[in-house]
Amino acid sequence: MDASQKNIVIDGKSLNASDVIAISRRDARVSLCPAARAALQSTRDFVESNWLAEDAPPVYALNTGVGSRKNIKLSPSAIPRFQKNLIMATSAGTGEPMPLEVVRAMMVLRANVFATNYSGIRVEVVERLLQMLNHGIIPIIPAKGSVGASGDLAPLAFLGAALMGHSDSLVYFGPRILPADKAFAEAGLPPTIDVQAKDATALLNGSTASLAYAVVAAYDARVLLRSAVASLCLSLEALRCEVSCFDDTMMSARPHKGQRAVATAIREMVLKSERCTDAAREVRISSGPKPIGQGTSERHAPPLGPRINDAYSLRCAPQVYGPVLEALNYIDGILGVEINSSTDNPLFIKTDDNSYRAISGGHFHGQYVAQAMDLLAIAVTDLGAICDRRAARLVDPACSFGLPGGLIAIEPGINNGFGGAQSMGTGLTLENMGLCAPASTLSLPAKANSEDHISNSCYSARRVRTIVENTQAIVAVELLLASQALDLVAPEFLEFPIGEGTLHAWQEVRRFAPPTLKDDRWVFGDIEALRLAISTEAIAASVSNWIKDF
Question: Sign of torsion, CA 28 33 34 37?
Answer without folding.
Answer: negative
